[in-house]
Specification:
The structure is a single chain. The protein has 114 residues and is mainly α. It has one domain. The protein is built from 7 helices and no strands.
Length: 114
Amino acid sequence: MSVHTITRDRAANLAVATEDAYMAPMYGEASWRRCCYVLLRRGYTEREAEAILRSKIMRWADDGFGHGHGFATNSAALVRYLDVLEGQRPSSFRPHATFLDFVRDELVPETFGD
């Protein structure tokens, strides 16, 4: 079984687990699954990806790079937004060095009550 198949299977499971997230209906089933795939392919764990999917980040991605600018609400908006976030430095994320640090240090604990 290929890495892509495994990741697609993991993404499908993650999409089901997060179908109750606030922005899931706006993205639609197929695009939501692609968002899950994008996050996993970028190296986020299932838990980190779920925290992102359940956060306002998904709304901000749509506002900034999707529907808010006349484009479709889809995984491409998330990719563009992640490209911006992952390239930002500490001032954008308080004391965190990277967006991944922010996800791990704040977003995951806030989402899951850790």
